[in-house]
Amino acid sequence: MAVSGSTPVSGGGRVHALLWPAADVRLRAAREALEHHQGVVVTGAWGSGRSTLLAQLGRTVERDALVVRACPRPGDEGRPLSGLAQMLAALPQNTADVLPREQRTLLRQIVGEAAPSLDVLAVRLALASLVTVSGASPGWLLMVDDAQWLDGTSAEVLRHVVGSVPPDRLRVVVAVRTVTRPTLGHRVTGEHVPTIALEPLTLEETVAHLESRGVRAAAGVALHHLSGGHPLLVRALAEDAAEGRPVTGGRYSDVAGTHVREAASAWLATVDDDVRGTLARVALAHEPTRLQVRRTWGSSSDAHMASAVQEGILGLLPGDRVVFTAEALRYEAGDGTSERLTGAAHRALAATSPDPVHAARHRLLGQDRPGDDVLTGADEAAALARAGGDCALSADILLAAAERTPNDRRASRVRRLTEAARDAGAAGRADLARRAADALATARAGRAQVVALLAAVDASGQELTEMDELLPRARRLAGADMGLLAAVDLRSAIRHNLGGRPEEARRAARRAAREAVAAHEPQIAVAALTMQARMERITAHPAAQRTLRRALGAEQSGTALALRDTPRYLACRHALFDDRLDHAETALMTLLPLAEVSGSADELQEVLRSLAELDVRRGACVRAARWSERALAIGRGAGLSLGPAWYTCALTAAAGSSFEDAARFARMGALVSREAGDLVFTSRNLWALGTVELVTGRPAQAAALWGRWRSWNGSSGSGT
Fold first, then answer.
1. CA of 27: how far to CAs of 43, 176, 198, 641, in Å?
2. SS3 state at 7
3. What tens digit of pLDDT does each residue of 172-197 get?
4. DSSP symbol at 49
5. Measured between alpha carbons, how far is 517 from 666 in angstroms, rounded to an integer?
């Protein structure tokens, strides 16, 4: 992990830390490895903090040992004994005076000549003698940084010395820039020593760092996706945000400033031009496999991808899928590629893609002025993607098709943009929904603009700031259209609920129901009645059950709704709250496959959370944890607000695995929910955190948290 700032670490000294939440753990692990195994190999990608760990480790032991450092550079791997020369040159003056004259002369020749032709066996013996008889007590600590550039002769000599001198006389730390096998490090240490891999930051670590830098923690999911948790990229994104860059909701070119672009470009510069050429092509593919890349651009791409995997730029997933480890790397890899080469790459991918949806997308993107056959193929591909549950892909295809639709086909462009907005809303992709809404505004598309704005509201999840911006625009554009006003009022009811105003939410839902009936919009009417029943349950209104029965009756007439807006789902929730667990489980297991094929990340996450809560009540904690982990993964992947998912994870962890994990989840959930203005899940996460504090013997802290919970609890009843 790379570093910046000052953070205390164990063993004395301070580490200059960027964001190194595991600094103490890594440092202790390295010291223990030296004590028990005589050496350790540290691996990590470019910028992961290998040099920092070595420097800190050296500072913690330099009072007790002679610390000798070597740091080869590119090109040194071809200069025999260059690494050993660097190490010897760093020794204190007169260190070699304890040796016989011939050995002293030999070692001085290594330092004084560029590439001496010396007897390697004699060099081994001379260095081993120096380590054994020199006055350092208890011995030497040899530190080799960037060992991937250490010449083979030096590695051979050092390996011999490590194996031949007493263990208390020499310990070795070797850092290698790789995320795969640390073979180059073992050239020096031998294979018996442990390896410390510096891995990316977790989402929770990323959020914690961003929050400490004044960046909204709610942006953590998007920025973690862009950075892949890589410390330098996380820091760069935080610096760009501090300079006024938006952190979510836009294209990469809008979010990325100078810092992250320079950091990503520097990482990509660690591979040669041929590898970067392959990376630029891979960046254009949608979920490619190694086989597809090989079929598209030849067998040489295998070596290029292997090099990028070793550098941590690419990763391999099950099914031989190739992914960039950070979205920023994917964007930067493709940046600057000429339109001609980009078009050729898309056309090549269209010819080799085994998926007809992806093939149609590449045919579309390979042309600036596609014909009617290509545009029609894009429409059909979007429909297939939607039917397969990938609404985000459908929205992406339709947006690209709309951009390429000729100006004299305005109706077709508006239709594609409207469908793209709906798909983006279902997928939880507020960025795509807003792109569609902006394009429809440019086209002065009237009613379609309202549809797109409401889709962006739906995609924003618990982000109330997004709703507060978009809903007034939608209401103004709706004018006197009762159907559109009903849709706006339905979202207003959701906004009031999350904002802690259940009575206002109930009134808005009733108003939406009346407007929907007047406009002959049965779907909106059912959704509004469902929302009204939800609010009446929260406020203990006597009509709650009657309203829910009305909604259920209307739904049976054949209306089609988003799953979480259906009275069937609300009835499941009420059965769960009333401990009618068998009924709730039967209904939820019926709804689960519908949610899985709906293409809506929000709907699927909701059903999974409900199943987790049900199993917590039953005491089936292992199964509850699986449901909650899956819900969290869905939310992360779609960029949803994670306040609800973290709350559910806190519940399942407290019930069956770890109070420490439960507290961590609840803290993160409360933080992001509070930032989003979501009082429901702010209060629920505070309640969960207070419960953990109480059962772990901290009643004063629990009381303080529950005091905050009461102040936030205006809307956290049992109705949602």
1. 14, 17, 11, 34
2. strand
3. 999 999 998 888 888 998 888 899 99
4. S
5. 41
Average pLDDT score over residue span 347-365:
94
Q: Which residue has the tokens 């795969």?
A: 180
The two tokens of residue 427 are 């997928």
Q: How far is CA 498 from CA 299, 483, 487, 670, in A?
A: 54, 23, 17, 14
The tokens describing 196, both together, are 């410390």
Prediction pTM value: 0.81
* Distance, CA of 87 to CA of 557 (rounded, Å): 82
What confidence tens digit (pLDDT) does each residue in 654-665 have? 998 889 999 999
Cβ-in-10-Å burial (0-12, 13-18, 19+) of 373 comes to: exposed
Percent of the chain that is helix, strand, coil (3-state, to 5): 70, 5, 25
Spatial distance between the Cα atoms of 328 and 608, rounded to a whole number of angstroms = 30
Nearest by Cα to 643 from 599, 620, 609: 609
Number of helices followed by number of strands (H, E) in the chain: 36, 9
pLDDT score of 393: 94
| Structure-token pair, residue 380 | 């059909």
3-state DSSP of 597-611: HHCCHHHHHHHHHHH
Roughly how many angstroms between the first and final C-alpha of the chain, as a whole number? 41
Q: Are 430 and 423 in contact, with CB atoms under 8 Å apart?
A: no
Q: In which band, very low, low, confident or very high, does the pLDDT at 605 lie, cut at 50, 70 and 90?
A: very high
Question: Is the N-terminal amide bond of 167 cis, ω within 30° of 0?
Answer: no
